[in-house]
Amino acid sequence: MDRVLTKIFQSINPDWINGHIWEILAVGIVTSLLLAIIPRWEQITDRFSRWLGYGGMVALLGMAFLVFYDITTRKLFHGGSIGLQELEWHLYAITFLFGIGYTLSVDKHVRVDILYTRYPTQLKWSIDLIALTLFIIPLTVLIIAQALPFVAESYLQQERSGDPGGLCCRWIIKSAILIGFIGLYLQTSGEIRKRILKLVKSCSSKGG
Question: What is the Cα–Cα distance from 150 to 152, expressed in whole angstroms?
């Protein structure tokens, strides 16, 4: 397994990625639209995001337990562990990263446009479709493209905490960036399909 990962990460070229970033973004947008035409794709992405959300929930519960344990040992027994404190931050990051796609799937993300709620339903769907395709998809593709060499370098250098007693294998938590934003990319393509289906159904009902 170690040899396979080493070969994969060694093949990642940051200079090539940076030199072809516009092509990568274009491929990412086109791929998301192709995925959106797959029958029941939105159900697949919702299910995948739900499982990631469960993972984030477990991470949150684990973080809460570790914080309680860490505070108790430090206050009552004058103990504590640098590794446990770092693990708390890692679990917090996983909670956030794994929850992004699930939040989008249930439409509970924060909207800052105060005018959005006043728009007609069809206009809302159209705005969502444009924002999903031209904003969220490029953003996720960009982050995934930049995270690949980030994780690869960490793995190849066997990066670990610089603090005594800190955690090793920092590439694992950095991989959570990839997993989280790949999940967001897939969920966004599912949301694109939902908006397209709603718009098509709305136009068909009006035409009929």
Answer: 6
- Categorize the per-residue pLDDT at 23 as very low, low, confident or very high, splitting at 50, 70 and 90: very high
pLDDT of residue 112: 65
| Residue among 190, 188, 186, 199 nearest 124 (CA) | 199
CB 47 within 8 A of CB 102: no
Sign for the pseudo-dihedral over CA of 189, 195, 198, 202: negative
Taking the CA atoms of 102, 108, 112 and 116 in sequence, report the sign of the dihedral they define.
positive
Distance of CA 151 to the CA centre of its chain: 15
Note the pTM of the prediction, 2 decimals: 0.91
CA–CA distance, 194 with 189 (Å, rounded to integer): 9
SS (H, E, C) 181-196: HHHHHHHHHHHHHHHH
Instruction: Compute the Cα dihedral for 40, 195, 139, 33 and give only its sign.
Output: positive
Unique residue bearing structure tokens 């950095």: 174
Q: What is the mean pLDDT of residues 21-49?
A: 95
